[in-house]
Specification:
The complex is a heterodimer of chains A (378) and B (201).
Chain A lengths: L15 E5 L3 E2 L5 E2 L2 E8 L9 E5 L26 E2 L4 E2 L4 E5 L14 E2 L4 E2 L9 H15 L6 E5 L1 H12 L6 E5 L7 H15 L17 H15 L2 H7 L18 H16 L2 H13 L10 H4 L6 E7 L7 H13 L4 E6 L13 H12 L4
Parallel strand pairs in A: 5-8, 5-11, 6-7, 11-12, 12-13, 13-14
Antiparallel strand pairs in A: 1-4, 2-3, 4-8, 9-10
Helix pairs in contact in A: 1-2, 3-4, 3-7, 4-6
Chain B lengths: L2 H4 L2 H9 L6 E5 L5 H10 L2 E6 L2 H9 L3 E4 L14 E7 L8 H11 E9 L4 H8 L24 H10 L2 E10 L2 E3 L3 H4 L2 E8 L3
Parallel strand pairs in B: 1-2, 1-4, 2-3, 4-5
Antiparallel strand pairs in B: 5-8, 6-7, 6-8
Classes of the chains: A alpha/beta (378), B alpha/beta (201).
């Protein structure tokens, strides 16, 4: 049951596109000569341009954060439950911006876009992008939208990392950061999961070294496996037990390798669905951006020192059953922010949906985000 | 924990009087955050509250203060040594099982600790016990079966603990019904406030 009424929805939205002709030097040293970013906006930018909120997406997210499309009313934004009139990210008060990151596969320039140098899809030649690179690209979008300073930057998981990175690269341009279900850097276990996912894609015979577009095929099997593995790590252990347990489709053992347990059916369905639309090269890029994220790297691992430039206020949120980025990882961010004498609040939400809890419409979670944002002066 | 509901204004004023403008205060068991808010408004103090109860975390956030959700029973791991000038625990010490540990942690993280607590030795509490009943009063507003308090102690007991653990009592005040008590606080004060420092050992 929803916390909100039907008129609290944004309604129909349209994606917009901007071309950026000025080259962007990436952290790897590579240069993007030019690129497009697709984005959506909800609500109105006020005269002082002080009410803008940027929502950063996670691994498989997009610029379509809220609302519906005219040509496909079923295509609801991925975080529609928290954005809208009277919702925590209140579009009556805030101007909310969603953007598809560089390297994505939903309209912004990415591996499936045409490489102007070859006239063919970039494929494996698309440069590796990092969280810092995304933040710089988002800053240029902010310039074009006339937004000097964001009231808040909000993100879950990899999106939370972007929010945190913003406060360090552009401290004067972000007044608040909501860092949700994130971590200050990946653990060896996190990187291991990512690499198994990448290996699934890289070893798919139809990957063709990342140039599968030229062969008219897609590495669907590898992408499907990558998503199945990822999906397991996004769910809570108890949630999976509760939802699927050991329930058998046929009611008894079949002594074969077809789908027997309900969880197998669910994962295969999720894998197939994802592999049908997502770009394998984008998946590789997103997981590398996660692996490389480590704002304390240039400070010999001293996160307190790394956070020194930030002037934003922070809300850090974690979820009890998130084992991919468990609450202790959020506490590392919180402890370092306290050590750096920043304004920070932290909540650990009791929610059974694992890492994906950040997308769930939980009354207490939404109340906290609402309370925090309501106290932001515009 | 619902600390602020029983925290009276004299506590606030005494605590505020011990804190200089611009200092950094950590409030353990901050309830709805009203003490941090009060210190911010009256002393320009940069405060952080700690709470375990989700509803109090929300209330603190609505009060616009920095609040960290965590369990004090686990100590203050993650907070650096001397990272705050004052660590305050107003009306919450009696709700913590690990009394010694939390006092030690307060004096590790803060240059100074400030503690207020209900005095079980208050004469009305003694009268209730003498009449064969657990005390219920303004400072102990719970029935025995629904009390969040897990430690019941008097001003004299607390001072003994400090003496035996090398904790210096820099200042103390006793209050009854909002007025300061000077004559035999262990008998006449319903609430006590202490200012503590690590002993020179």
């Amino acid at each position: 049951m929803s916390l909100y009424s039907d008129h609290q929805t944004i309604g129909l939205v349209e994606a917009q596109r901007l071309h950026f002709g000025e080259p962007l030097r990436l952290r790897s040293g590579a240069v993007m000569p030019a690129y497009d970013l697709v984005y959506e906006t909800y609500g109105r930018l006020n005269a002082a341009k002080s009410n803008a909120i940027l929502v950063c997406h996670a691994l498989s997210g997009t610029h379509h954060v809220a609302g519906r499309y005219r040509d496909n009313e079923k295509n609801v934004g991925w975080w529609d439950n928290i954005i809208g009139p009277g919702k925590p990210l209140d579009t009556e008060r805030f101007f909310v911006v969603g953007v598809n990151n560089l390297g994505g596969c939903h309209g912004s320039t990415g591996p499936s876009s045409t490489n102007p140098a070859s006239g063919k899809p970039w494929g494996a030649d698309f440069p590796v992008v990092t969280v810092e690179d995304w933040v710089h690209a988002q800053a240029r979008l902010a310039d074009r939208l006339g937004i000097d300073s964001w009231a808040a930057i909000v993100g879950g998981s990899l999106g939370g990392m972007q929010a945190l990175q913003w406060t360090l690269l552009y401290p004067q341009r972000v007044r608040h950061a909501l860092v949700i279900a994130a971590a200050p850097k990946l653990t060896a276990q996190n990187i291991a999961f990512n690499d198994v996912a990448r290996q699934a894609i890289l070893t798919d015979p139809e990957f063709h070294g990342g140039h599968f577009y030229d062969h008219g095929v897609r590495p669907v099997r590898g992408l499907r496996l990558a998503r199945m593995l990822g999906h397991i790590t996004y769910l809570g252990d108890d949630q999976m037990a509760e939802k699927f347990g050991r329930v058998l489709r046929a009611g008894s053992f079949q002594y074969g390798y077809d789908v027997e347990f309900e969880i197998e059916s669910y994962l295969r369905y999720q894998g197939d669905k994802f592999a049908s639309y997502f770009d394998a090269n984008t998946y590789l890029l997103m997981t590398k951006a996660l692996d490389y994220f480590d704002p304390a790297h240039h400070c010999n691992g001293d996160l307190v020192a790394a956070l020194a430039p930030a002037t934003a206020g922070f809300l850090v949120v974690s979820f009890t059953t998130d084992w991919r980025f468990h609450p202790g990882r959020s506490r590392e961010i919180v402890n370092a922010l306290i050590g750096a004498e920043k304004n920070v609040s932290y909540a650990e939400i009791d929610c059974k949906y694992g890492h994906d809890s950040f997308l769930i419409e939980d009354a207490h979670y939404h109340a906290l985000v609402r309370a925090y944002l309501e106290n932001i002066r515009l | 924990m619902n600390a602020s509901a029983v925290l009276t204004r004299p506590d606030y004023e005494v605590i505020a009087g011990w804190i200089k403008p611009g200092e950094r205060v950590l409030d353990l068991g901050c309830g709805d955050g009203s003490l941090i808010r009060y210190l911010g408004e009256t002393r320009q103090v940069r405060g952080v509250g700690v709470e375990i109860d989700p509803h109090n975390v929300l209330a603190s956030m609505r009060n616009g203060i920095n609040v960290i959700q965590m369990d004090l029973e686990a100590g203050l791991a993650g907070f650096g040594d001397a990272s705050f000038t004052h660590v305050v625990m107003s009306q919450s010490l009696q709700m913590v099982h690990h009394t010694e540990q939390i006092l030690r942690e307060m004096l590790r993280v803060g240059r100074e600790a400030v503690v207020s607590f209900p005095n079980f030795g208050y004469y009305r509490h003694r009268e209730a016990i003498a009449a064969g009943r657990m005390p219920v009063s303004e400072s102990l507003p719970y029935q025995w079966y629904d009390s969040p308090n897990v430690r019941f102690f008097t001003i004299a007991d607390f001072e003994d603990l400090c003496a035996s653990r090398g904790i210096d009592i820099t200042e103390s005040r006793g209050f009854d019904e909002g007025r300061q008590v000077t004559d035999d606080p262990n008998l006449n004060a319903s609430v006590a406030v202490y200012r503590l420092a690590s002993g020179r050992s």
